[in-house]
């Protein structure tokens, strides 16, 4: 693999989560059990059948309740997105979604996991990887062009927004306006990897307040699409 060809484009996975699927329902039960017993490692996939694992394309918002968990292992998952509620896992120290080949980006809220020091990510699969430079999906600005059906910030179209919910700002935690979030990409070092982070901000001011990007990556927030990224190191 030698990088993406000039003019290449990418788009978000449009997969919606079937919340009636047996795998999803079992995952909800496992989260409840982990909250109740205060376990420090959460490794749900081995307890599911191969078919049940394929049914899970995101994690429930209830992962934010796993405040005792220090190690989150999602090895070989079928995930295409992780919800911003991962930022509530305040004791998380190790994050392992290795070989989750459909997981190309992460929510900015993961930077709230202040104790996170170890990560194992399939970096060839993520947007903006410094060796291969796969392009980022183009982010569109919020505004009156957003269809009324998408103004429910808890039920967004993942093909357009990347996420299915953006009620609160990734930066200040304030409410996102009904016209939709101000989105941006920012590559930052999270634990042991530089990850492409999707920011859902309430305003341009919150985008301006973001820290600089990682060395060897764009230093400022951007909307993806046809951008010139620094050459590979």
From TrEMBL:
Q: Which Gene3D superfamilies match?
A: Ribonuclease Inhibitor (3.80.10.10)
- InterPro entries (alphabetical): LRR_dom_sf (IPR032675)
What is the recorded name of this protein?
A: Leucine rich repeat (LRR) protein
């Amino acid at each position: 693999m030698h990088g993406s060809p000039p003019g290449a484009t990418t788009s978000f996975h449009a997969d919606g989560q079937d919340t009636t699927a047996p795998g999803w329902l079992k995952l909800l039960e496992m989260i409840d059990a982990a909250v109740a017993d205060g376990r420090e490692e959460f490794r749900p996939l081995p307890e599911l059948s191969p078919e049940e694992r394929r049914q899970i394309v995101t994690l429930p918002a209830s992962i934010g309740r796993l405040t005792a968990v220090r190690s989150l292992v999602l090895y070989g998952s079928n995930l295409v997105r992780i919800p911003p509620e991962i930022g509530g896992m305040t004791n998380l120290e190790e994050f392992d979604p290795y070989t989750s080949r459909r997981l190309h980006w992460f929510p900015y809220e993961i930077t709230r996991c202040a104790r996170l020091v170890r990560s194992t990510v399939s970096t060839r699969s993520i947007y903006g990887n410094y060796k291969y430079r796969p392009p980022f999906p183009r982010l569109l600005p919020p505004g009156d062009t957003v269809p009324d059906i998408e103004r429910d910030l808890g039920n967004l179209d993942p093909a357009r927004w990347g996420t299915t919910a953006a009620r609160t700002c990734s930066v200040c935690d304030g409410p996102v306006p009904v016209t939709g979030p101000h989105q941006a990409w920012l590559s930052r070092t999270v634990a042991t990897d530089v990850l492409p982070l999707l920011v859902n901000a309430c305003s341009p001011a919150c985008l301006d307040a973001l820290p600089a990007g990682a060395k060897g990556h764009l230093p400022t927030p951007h909307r993806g699409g046809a951008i010139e990224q620094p050459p590979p190191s």
